[in-house]
Write a structure and sequence with these properties.
Low-confidence stretches: 1-11
Shape: globular
CATH architecture of the largest domain: 3-Layer(aba) Sandwich
Strand order of the largest sheet: 3-2-1-4-5-6-7
Mean pLDDT: 89
Largest sheet: 7 strands, parallel
CATH topology of the largest domain: Rossmann fold
CATH class of the largest domain: Alpha Beta
Length: 420
């Protein structure tokens, strides 16, 4: 039996009920709500539990919005300097701190909406536990590269390349085990206490809670990620290329001039990146280019001093801008990186934290851009821009990889999995 025949047998067009349990992590919002919108467009009934900050964006998808009743507060990860403080902050603000309230809210939503499937953000542990306790399947959304430990995948967070030889594989085992122990030190007992409250057996590691999903839906292209042996429930289903709601409706025309257009798109959440953004603008001021800087909701445009050849705005529709651009400068968030590649454009990355160093490692490994330190002076940033614009091999590599990314973004794999 062919794959198409199998998909027809296992995919139903009968309207179903879905409960999405999502959290506002900035750049993860557009792709995760893009998933919900696609399910709504298929004629299914969708309810989205989400942070109040996402209410308008949820309603734009056509889904019913329900708010979380509690929040763990802002995760100010840029202030944390050590692996220990980062691990504890992630546990307290993203993974376990919100989980008891999430479990209560998700349980109430499940009982009210009677969903066929629960779909959660990667960090929505409380909603996962609620689904399990009610005997419902749940899928998790991974809106970036594959983030759980897997044989062959470099440990995440440090921008490592794939291991080579026995020493490289030993490196991966040691670093992965150490990072798992560090998270478990602050999270595992609390996760299992919450599972016990919901009459569920304990899990061996914090990551085991995510691994209990029916499917791990990886919202990127396998051609971008490093190869690894993923679990049977993991699926690369292609990226979601939607612009954020705060930028998608903006009117935009290219700035006047003849030089190549360089789009600067840094984090949509604050990562203490104003000084870095200013150095980028200073670098562009000394080059024969047209610069367009979108500051997003995290930084006011007037906070940046711009030379005559650089325009600074709060937002612009990136997919439209990229049709005219020759290069994108970014912090390395997955959403911007993957949209840039889908447009066939090369990158200069100044990664700040989170998954950004890992995205930068994939960009440089694929030959589609260069990475420089977020603390690099303007002259070093200017060198990187001139290097990428002046060497056509970066653009050629980006166009080749972009074809695979765009093909995966247009595929039906995501909906096939969700309707299976």
């Amino acid at each position: 039996m062919s794959r198409i025949q199998i998909e027809r047998l296992t995919t139903s067009t009968t309207p179903r009920s879905y409960l999405f349990a999502l959290t506002d992590a900035g750049g993860t919002v557009p792709p995760e709500l893009g998933v919900a919108r696609r399910v709504v467009d298929r004629g299914h009934r969708v309810t989205v539990l989400a942070d109040e900050s996402m209410a308008d964006q949820v309603r734009r998808t056509g889904a019913v919005f329900l708010p979380w009743t509690s929040s763990a507060g802002e995760f100010r990860d840029w202030e944390l300097r050590t692996p220990t403080s980062l691990a504890r902050g992630m546990v307290d603000h993203m993974l376990v701190g919100p989980a008891p309230g999430q479990a209560d809210d998700a349980t109430a939503a499940i009982d009210a909406t009677l969903p066929d499937l629960v779909v959660t953000s990667f960090v929505g542990l409380g909603a996962m536990i609620a689904a399990e306790a009610r005997g419902l399947p749940f899928d998790i959304l991974i809106p970036n590269i594959y983030t759980l430990p897997a044989p062959g995948m470099p440990p995440l967070g440090a921008g490592m390349s794939p291991a080579r030889g026995p020493l490289g594989r030993l490196r991966d085992r040691v670093v992965t085990a150490a990072s798992t122990r560090l998270i478990d030190r602050y999270a595992l007992a609390r996760v299992n206490a919450l599972r016990a409250e919901h009459r569920l057996d304990p899990v061996a590691t914090t990551w085991s809670q995510m691994q209990r999903a029916s499917r791990q839906l990886v919202l990127t292209s396998a051609a971008f990620d490093f190869p690894a042996t993923l679990p049977q429930n993991a699926r690369y289903v292609g990226p979601i290329l939607d612009d954020p709601a705060w930028a998608a409706d903006e009117a935009w025309t290219p700035p006047a001039g003849e030089g190549p257009l360089v789009l600067v798109a840094m984090s949509s959440t604050f990562q203490n990146h104003v000084a870095c953004l200013q150095r980028i603008v200073d670098a562009l001021g000394g080059l024969p280019v047209r610069g367009l800087v979108t500051t997003g909701p995290a930084v006011a445009p007037y906070a940046i001093r711009a030379p005559a050849n650089v325009t600074v705005v709060a937002s612009a529709p990136h997919r439209e801008v990229m049709r005219h651009a020759g290069l994108v400068i970014t912090h390395g968030g997955h959403g911007t990186v993957i949209k840039t590649l889908a447009a066939g454009l090369p990158l200069v990355i100044l990664h700040h934290g989170r998954d950004q160093a890992d995205n930068a490692a994939r960009v440089t490994a694929r030959g589609v851009g260069v990475a420089v330190s977020r603390r690099a002076p303007a002259r070093k940033i200017a060198w990187a821009v001139a290097e990428v614009l002046g060497d056509p091999t970066y653009r050629e590599a980006a166009e080749r990889l972009g074809q695979a990314v765009a093909r995966d973004a247009a595929s039906s794999a995501l909906l096939v999995e969700l309707e299976r």
